[in-house]
Amino acid sequence: MGTDPDLFVHPERISSQLICPICTQVLENPVQTVNDHLYCEDELIEWMSRHDIPLCPVTHEELKPDDIRKPSRIIINMLAELERYCPNKENGCEWIGSNEQVNTHIKTCNKRSIIELINDINIKDNKITQLRQRLIHKDKHIHTLEIKNNDLMNELVIVNKKLKVYDAFFEDTKQKIGSSSSIISGSNGGSGGGSGNGRQYREYDCKSSSSSGSSGSSVSGSDNKESALQRLLQLRELGSFEDEGKS
Ligand SMILES: [Zn+2]
Ligand SMILES: [Zn+2]
Protein backbone atom coordinates (compact mmCIF):
# COMPACT_ATOMS: atom_id res chain seq x y z
CA MET A 1 0.00 0.00 0.00
CA GLY A 2 1.37 3.42 -0.95
CA THR A 3 1.37 6.53 1.25
CA ASP A 4 -1.64 8.83 1.62
CA PRO A 5 -0.86 12.07 -0.33
CA ASP A 6 -2.26 14.07 2.63
CA LEU A 7 0.76 12.94 4.67
CA PHE A 8 2.91 15.11 2.37
CA VAL A 9 3.43 18.82 3.00
CA HIS A 10 2.58 19.78 -0.61
CA PRO A 11 0.34 17.03 -2.04
CA GLU A 12 -0.67 19.26 -4.95
CA ARG A 13 2.94 19.34 -6.18
CA ILE A 14 3.38 15.57 -6.32
CA SER A 15 3.91 14.39 -9.92
CA SER A 16 1.22 12.02 -11.26
CA GLN A 17 4.17 9.76 -12.23
CA LEU A 18 4.68 9.08 -8.52
CA ILE A 19 1.11 7.86 -7.95
CA CYS A 20 0.54 4.10 -8.03
CA PRO A 21 -2.27 3.16 -10.52
CA ILE A 22 -3.37 0.23 -8.31
CA CYS A 23 -3.72 1.94 -4.88
CA THR A 24 -3.81 5.58 -6.15
CA GLN A 25 -1.43 6.59 -3.32
CA VAL A 26 2.15 7.86 -3.44
CA LEU A 27 4.46 4.99 -4.50
CA GLU A 28 6.12 2.87 -1.83
CA ASN A 29 9.05 0.58 -2.83
CA PRO A 30 8.29 1.26 -6.50
CA VAL A 31 8.96 -1.12 -9.40
CA GLN A 32 8.80 -0.40 -13.11
CA THR A 33 7.22 -2.55 -15.84
CA VAL A 34 8.55 -2.99 -19.38
CA ASN A 35 6.11 -0.30 -20.63
CA ASP A 36 7.54 2.15 -18.01
CA HIS A 37 4.59 2.21 -15.60
CA LEU A 38 5.37 2.46 -11.90
CA TYR A 39 3.64 0.48 -9.13
CA CYS A 40 4.17 -0.27 -5.45
CA GLU A 41 6.13 -3.54 -5.40
CA ASP A 42 3.86 -5.41 -2.95
CA GLU A 43 0.71 -4.49 -4.86
CA LEU A 44 2.05 -5.47 -8.27
CA ILE A 45 3.19 -8.85 -6.93
CA GLU A 46 -0.25 -9.42 -5.40
CA TRP A 47 -1.95 -8.31 -8.64
CA MET A 48 0.15 -10.72 -10.72
CA SER A 49 -0.46 -13.62 -8.33
CA ARG A 50 -4.23 -13.13 -8.69
CA HIS A 51 -4.23 -13.62 -12.49
CA ASP A 52 -3.22 -16.63 -14.58
CA ILE A 53 -2.00 -14.31 -17.33
CA PRO A 54 -1.26 -11.02 -15.53
CA LEU A 55 -1.93 -7.90 -17.58
CA CYS A 56 -0.69 -4.38 -16.86
CA PRO A 57 -3.52 -2.59 -14.98
CA VAL A 58 -3.00 0.47 -17.21
CA THR A 59 -2.20 -0.82 -20.72
CA HIS A 60 -3.53 -4.39 -20.40
CA GLU A 61 -0.36 -5.75 -21.96
CA GLU A 62 0.94 -9.02 -20.60
CA LEU A 63 3.27 -8.62 -17.59
CA LYS A 64 6.23 -11.00 -17.33
CA PRO A 65 8.08 -11.26 -13.99
CA ASP A 66 11.45 -11.00 -15.80
CA ASP A 67 10.46 -7.62 -17.26
CA ILE A 68 9.89 -6.00 -13.87
CA ARG A 69 12.82 -3.92 -12.63
CA LYS A 70 13.83 -1.18 -10.20
CA PRO A 71 12.89 2.34 -11.36
CA SER A 72 15.52 4.82 -12.55
CA ARG A 73 17.60 6.81 -10.06
CA ILE A 74 15.62 10.02 -10.95
CA ILE A 75 12.31 8.46 -9.81
CA ILE A 76 13.88 7.11 -6.60
CA ASN A 77 15.34 10.56 -5.82
CA MET A 78 12.05 12.38 -6.58
CA LEU A 79 10.26 10.11 -4.08
CA ALA A 80 13.02 10.38 -1.48
CA GLU A 81 13.03 14.18 -1.53
CA LEU A 82 9.27 14.71 -1.03
CA GLU A 83 8.66 16.65 2.18
CA ARG A 84 6.25 14.89 4.50
CA TYR A 85 4.75 14.50 7.97
CA CYS A 86 5.06 11.63 10.42
CA PRO A 87 2.40 8.88 10.10
CA ASN A 88 1.62 9.63 13.79
CA LYS A 89 0.70 13.26 12.98
CA GLU A 90 -2.86 12.62 14.17
CA ASN A 91 -1.47 11.50 17.55
CA GLY A 92 0.30 14.83 17.88
CA CYS A 93 3.72 14.22 16.28
CA GLU A 94 4.97 17.44 14.70
CA TRP A 95 7.89 15.92 12.81
CA ILE A 96 8.49 17.13 9.22
CA GLY A 97 11.24 15.69 7.06
CA SER A 98 12.07 14.09 3.75
CA ASN A 99 10.28 10.90 2.68
CA GLU A 100 13.53 8.89 2.90
CA GLN A 101 14.04 9.90 6.58
CA VAL A 102 10.59 8.86 7.79
CA ASN A 103 11.50 5.23 8.60
CA THR A 104 14.39 6.35 10.80
CA HIS A 105 12.09 8.81 12.59
CA ILE A 106 9.28 6.25 13.15
CA LYS A 107 11.66 4.00 15.12
CA THR A 108 12.07 6.71 17.75
CA CYS A 109 8.77 8.57 17.38
CA ASN A 110 7.21 9.02 20.85
CA LYS A 111 3.68 9.41 19.43
CA ARG A 112 3.35 5.84 18.23
CA SER A 113 0.16 4.03 19.14
CA ILE A 114 0.12 1.84 22.28
CA ILE A 115 -0.22 -1.29 20.08
CA GLU A 116 2.94 -0.38 18.17
CA LEU A 117 4.81 0.36 21.41
CA ILE A 118 3.69 -2.99 22.89
CA ASN A 119 4.84 -4.76 19.71
CA ASP A 120 8.17 -3.00 19.99
CA ILE A 121 8.55 -4.06 23.64
CA ASN A 122 7.68 -7.66 22.72
CA ILE A 123 10.30 -7.70 19.95
CA LYS A 124 12.90 -6.31 22.37
CA ASP A 125 11.88 -8.83 25.04
CA ASN A 126 12.39 -11.67 22.56
CA LYS A 127 15.82 -10.32 21.68
CA ILE A 128 16.76 -10.13 25.37
CA THR A 129 15.64 -13.75 25.88
CA GLN A 130 17.71 -14.88 22.89
CA LEU A 131 20.76 -12.98 24.14
CA ARG A 132 20.34 -14.49 27.64
CA GLN A 133 20.27 -17.98 26.14
CA ARG A 134 23.41 -17.24 24.15
CA LEU A 135 25.07 -15.95 27.30
CA ILE A 136 24.22 -19.14 29.21
CA HIS A 137 25.63 -21.21 26.34
CA LYS A 138 28.84 -19.14 26.27
CA ASP A 139 29.19 -19.44 30.08
CA LYS A 140 28.97 -23.22 29.83
CA HIS A 141 31.60 -23.21 27.09
CA ILE A 142 33.92 -21.03 29.19
CA HIS A 143 33.46 -23.37 32.16
CA THR A 144 34.41 -26.39 30.02
CA LEU A 145 37.49 -24.56 28.75
CA GLU A 146 38.49 -23.64 32.32
CA ILE A 147 38.33 -27.29 33.38
CA LYS A 148 40.43 -28.28 30.36
CA ASN A 149 42.91 -25.53 31.16
CA ASN A 150 43.24 -26.72 34.77
CA ASP A 151 43.85 -30.28 33.59
CA LEU A 152 46.54 -29.08 31.22
CA MET A 153 48.18 -26.97 33.95
CA ASN A 154 48.29 -30.00 36.27
CA GLU A 155 49.78 -32.08 33.49
CA LEU A 156 52.39 -29.38 32.90
CA VAL A 157 53.41 -29.41 36.57
CA ILE A 158 53.88 -33.19 36.45
CA VAL A 159 55.83 -33.03 33.18
CA ASN A 160 58.10 -30.35 34.67
CA LYS A 161 58.76 -32.51 37.72
CA LYS A 162 59.57 -35.47 35.48
CA LEU A 163 61.86 -33.31 33.40
CA LYS A 164 63.81 -32.24 36.51
CA VAL A 165 64.30 -35.87 37.58
CA TYR A 166 65.38 -36.88 34.08
CA ASP A 167 67.85 -33.98 33.99
CA ALA A 168 69.32 -34.92 37.37
CA PHE A 169 69.51 -38.57 36.31
CA PHE A 170 71.32 -37.85 33.05
CA GLU A 171 73.60 -35.25 34.61
CA ASP A 172 74.64 -37.80 37.21
CA THR A 173 75.25 -40.49 34.58
CA LYS A 174 77.19 -38.08 32.37
CA GLN A 175 79.50 -37.14 35.22
CA LYS A 176 80.15 -40.78 36.02
CA ILE A 177 80.81 -41.60 32.38
CA GLY A 178 83.15 -38.61 32.21
CA SER A 179 85.16 -39.64 35.27
CA SER A 180 85.21 -43.30 34.22
CA SER A 181 86.35 -42.54 30.66
CA SER A 182 89.14 -40.34 31.93
CA ILE A 183 90.32 -43.18 34.19
CA ILE A 184 90.04 -45.72 31.37
CA SER A 185 91.73 -43.45 28.84
CA GLY A 186 94.43 -42.90 31.44
CA SER A 187 95.03 -46.68 31.73
CA ASN A 188 95.12 -46.93 27.96
CA GLY A 189 97.91 -44.40 27.85
CA GLY A 190 95.74 -41.62 26.40
CA SER A 191 95.23 -43.40 23.08
CA GLY A 192 91.95 -43.84 21.21
CA GLY A 193 89.82 -41.44 19.14
CA GLY A 194 86.07 -40.75 19.06
CA SER A 195 85.09 -44.32 18.11
CA GLY A 196 87.23 -45.67 20.98
CA ASN A 197 85.26 -43.61 23.49
CA GLY A 198 82.03 -45.39 22.52
CA ARG A 199 83.55 -48.69 23.46
CA GLN A 200 84.85 -47.26 26.73
CA TYR A 201 81.33 -46.15 27.70
CA ARG A 202 80.02 -49.65 27.10
CA GLU A 203 82.84 -51.05 29.19
CA TYR A 204 81.79 -48.73 32.02
CA ASP A 205 78.15 -49.81 31.71
CA CYS A 206 79.13 -53.48 32.07
CA LYS A 207 81.23 -52.79 35.13
CA SER A 208 78.66 -50.63 36.86
CA SER A 209 75.83 -53.09 36.19
CA SER A 210 77.75 -55.90 37.94
CA SER A 211 78.24 -54.05 41.19
CA SER A 212 79.33 -57.21 43.06
CA GLY A 213 82.47 -57.53 40.87
CA SER A 214 85.62 -56.45 42.70
CA SER A 215 87.26 -54.84 39.72
CA GLY A 216 90.43 -52.85 39.88
CA SER A 217 88.78 -49.60 38.81
CA SER A 218 89.04 -46.54 41.04
CA VAL A 219 85.22 -46.47 41.61
CA SER A 220 84.87 -48.12 44.99
CA GLY A 221 82.23 -50.74 45.84
CA SER A 222 80.45 -48.43 48.30
CA ASP A 223 80.22 -45.67 45.62
CA ASN A 224 78.63 -48.14 43.20
CA LYS A 225 76.05 -49.17 45.77
CA GLU A 226 75.28 -45.57 46.58
CA SER A 227 74.73 -44.58 42.92
CA ALA A 228 72.60 -47.69 42.31
CA LEU A 229 70.46 -46.71 45.29
CA GLN A 230 70.15 -43.15 43.97
CA ARG A 231 69.01 -44.40 40.58
CA LEU A 232 66.51 -46.70 42.16
CA LEU A 233 65.05 -43.80 44.12
CA GLN A 234 64.95 -41.61 41.01
CA LEU A 235 63.20 -44.31 38.98
CA ARG A 236 60.68 -44.78 41.78
CA GLU A 237 60.05 -41.04 41.77
CA LEU A 238 59.40 -41.21 38.01
CA GLY A 239 56.96 -44.04 38.56
CA SER A 240 55.06 -42.09 41.20
CA PHE A 241 54.77 -39.07 38.87
CA GLU A 242 53.42 -41.26 36.12
CA ASP A 243 50.84 -42.63 38.55
CA GLU A 244 50.00 -39.06 39.50
CA GLY A 245 49.51 -38.21 35.85
CA LYS A 246 47.11 -41.13 35.32
CA SER A 247 44.90 -40.37 38.30
ZN1 LIG B 1 0.30 1.18 -4.82
ZN1 LIG C 1 6.50 10.94 14.64
Structural features, described:
It is a single chain. With 247 residues, the chain is mainly alpha-helical. It folds into 2 domains: 5-111, Herpes Virus-1, CATH 3.30.40; 113-181 and 231-247. It is 57% helix and 5% strand. The protein is built from 6 helices and 4 strands, in the order E-E-H-H-E-E-H-H-H-H. A two-stranded antiparallel sheet has the order 1-2. A hairpin with a 5-residue loop joins strand 1 and strand 2 (38-40). Helix 4 (114-187) packs across helix 5 (194-209) and helix 4 (114-187) packs antiparallel against helix 6 (221-246). The longest helix has 74 residues, at 114-187. The radius of gyration is 46 Å and the shape is elongated. Bound molecules: zinc ion (2 copies). Residues 2, 20, 22-23, 25, 39-40, 43 line the site of one zinc ion.
